[in-house]
From TrEMBL:
Residues making up the signal peptide according to the UniProt record: 1-19
Record-given protein name: ABC transporter substrate-binding protein
Lineage of source species: Bacteria, Bacillati, Actinomycetota, Actinomycetes, Micromonosporales
Keyword S-adenosyl-L-methionine recorded: no
Domain Solute-binding protein family span(s) in chain numbering: 85-455
Organism whose genome encodes this protein: Plantactinospora siamensis
Keyword Signal among UniProt keywords: yes
Keywords: Signal
Length: 556
């Protein structure tokens, strides 16, 4: 089954980051390993395209190899399941005011060449990104106005505007050593191929176009938590038949790929050791063109919320791999702490066509003598629902959605344009109804700003940035501004609560299901992988995962 491109894009990102966390097992023999440690783990692909070359520059996103995520470290590491920041190279971060953020750095950290880590390295890193815009892949200098080294353990950042809404970006900024990078002639083309110097748990041990091997850094600042001596990455076929065969044969300790029948192909081959967990990612929602009737009527939209058989979509179109989504726009259960307590069932709506039927009639959209639902102009309501014709899972979901709507007396026809046409029409507002993806990150401001902010919209015929439904609401914009300025967690949660109620009460979009983050793992060599019972991280939180893993034998 060909997966939808948006979902595949998320999966590819997961593969790349997981590839970063290991390698495949095609070389068989271990180098022995330290007593009480896992000798080696085999993970997935290591990136770099079809002809990978050594590139450990963490800012050259298109061609860097997966090792970067284990050689270099950020100031904070996010648990992206619960959206909690974990101190890493920094032990403390404090907002002095909405535009001033102070970092206190960790003592005792060394670069893997033995040089001490200090605030000068942090200051240099951010200045490097400022001076070389091509390296600022997260766009952090769109928000920063200055970075000052206050003392050897303190860095003060100032922002042009209130900066709390950009805080999670710091978990993606890898700190590089000033004493190495300041000697580089052109950082934009620097591949950092020879013995890359970082503060991370691993160093590059060997490389060829088919295999990348990392070795444990014994002088790592929390070396006692790293109990895997070697990580092996192998060139893959991007989750194709070869990769799936290797997974089924147990050659990977972990990977991240879509498999049509994961239970039969993987779990049933070794139920004791073969496991998978697909935590929720972005939300896939019904987008209605809010500039058109009847979609511009809030009562009509609210009546449609229970009209969709989400579980049917999950089971038939998504193979049971995902979960129905919350109407709040939050990813449940990980972001449950942001949820207002007075929203029932975490905002997850059940299938109730009888209620939808009654609510549509009560809202002024009755059925005529032929059983067709009519608008307030007395004419039968007819519209199209679009899904890209090449995205087979979305096409199947679309069939269920259209059937649910037609069962209510609406006249809905499914269309399957090319992905390119679909995307262009969605941006321009040239549609009636279709599917869209939003949220799923730990940046609550962006999660709501992108689908709901007036500034992210545009008149019909013009390309919207991300507000493709054309939601225009001064209250929403005001709450988004409040969230952007809030540095206190309670104030942030209050604003998110207001935005989630906008989603529930006014229904700008109708969430249906969460996209999956693919993740398979084996417990023959190591235990402590994140899973549904212990979701301490998502599959791409590689530093959190590698510091949690323990030898399988020790666990027994």
């Amino acid at each position: 089954m060909r997966r939808s491109l948006l979902i595949r894009a998320a999966a590819v990102a997961t593969v790349a980051a997981l590839a970063v966390s290991g390698c495949t097992g095609t070389e068989g023999k271990s180098t022995g390993g330290t007593a009480g440690h896992v000798a080696f783990l085999d993970f997935g692909d290591f990136g770099g395209g079809s002809n990978p070359q050594q590139n450990y520059n963490p800012y050259l996103e298109a061609t860097r190899l997966g090792a970067f995520d284990y050689v270099f470290e950020p100031l904070i590491a996010y648990d992206n399941f619960h959206c909690e920041a974990r101190p890493w190279l920094a032990t403390k971060f404090e907002w002095k005011d909405p535009k001033t953020l102070v970092w206190t750095l960790r003592d005792g950290v060394k670069w893997n060449d033995g040089q001490p880590f200090s605030a000068d390295d942090v200051g240099y890193t951010f200045d490097l990104l400022k001076q070389n815009k091509a390296l600022d892949i997260k766009g952090i200098w769109r928000y920063l106005s200055g970075v000052q080294v206050t003392d050897p353990k303190t860095v003060t950042m100032t922002f042009a505007q209130p900066g709390a809404s950009t805080f999670n970006l710091f978990s993606d900024i890898k700190i590089v050593p000033k004493h190495v990078w300041s000697t580089v002639k052109d950082p934009v083309t620097f591949t950092n191929a020879e013995k890359p110097v970082g503060t991370g748990p691993y160093t590059v041990k060997s490389f060829n176009p088919q295999q990348l091997t990392l070795g444990r850094n014994p002088d790592y600042w929390q070396a006692d938590k790293v109990q895997v001596d070697e990580l092996r990455f192998h060139k893959s076929d991007n989750g194709g038949q070869i990769d799936q065969l290797k997974l089924s044969r147990g050659e990977y300790d972990t990977n991240a790929m879509f498999v049509p029948d994961i239970k039969k192909a993987f779990v049933d081959r070794d139920p004791e050791h073969n496991h998978y967990w697909y935590p929720p990612g972005g939300t896939i929602s019904v987008y209605l063109n809010l500039t058109k009737a009847p979609f511009n009527d809030m009562a009509f939209r609210k009546a449609l919320v229970p009209a969709f058989n989400r579980q049917d979509i999950v089971d038939k179109a998504q193979l049971g791999y995902v979960k129905p989504a919350s109407q709040t726009g939050l990813v449940i259960p990980g972001q449950e702490q942001w949820l207002p307590k007075d929203i029932p069932n975490n905002g997850i709506m059940g299938y109730d066509p009888a209620k939808a039927d009654a609510d549509l009639t009560a809202a002024g959209y009755p059925k005529n003598a032929q059983g067709k639902r009519v608008g307030k102009d007395g004419k039968p309501i007819s519209f199209t629902f679009r899904t890209p014709g090449a995205w087979t899972d979305w096409v199947q979901a679309g069939k269920i959605i259209v059937a649910n709507l037609n069962a209510l007396g609406l006249t809905v026809r499914q269309e399957g344009p090319t992905p390119e046409s679909y995307e262009a029409d969605r941006k321009a507002g040239n549609y009636d109804a279709l599917l869209g993806v939003h949220g799923g990150s730990c940046n609550m401001y962006r999660n709501y700003y992108e689908p709901l902010a007036s500034a992210a919209s545009a008149p019909i015929g013009k390309q919207a940035v991300s507000n493709f439904v054309r939601w225009q609401d001064p209250h929403t914009d005001q709450v988004l501004d409040t969230l952007a300025n809030a540095t206190d967690e309670n104030a942030q949660k209050a604003a998110v609560g207001e935005l989630s109620k906008v989603m529930v009460d006014q229904v700008p979009v109708i969430p249906l299901w969460y996209g999956a983050r693919w993740f398979q793992y084996r417990t023959t060599r190591a235990v402590g992988w994140p899973n549904e019972q212990d979701p301490y991280a998502i599959p791409t939180d590689n530093l959190l995962i590698i510091t949690h893993l323990k030898p399988a034998e020790a666990a027994k």
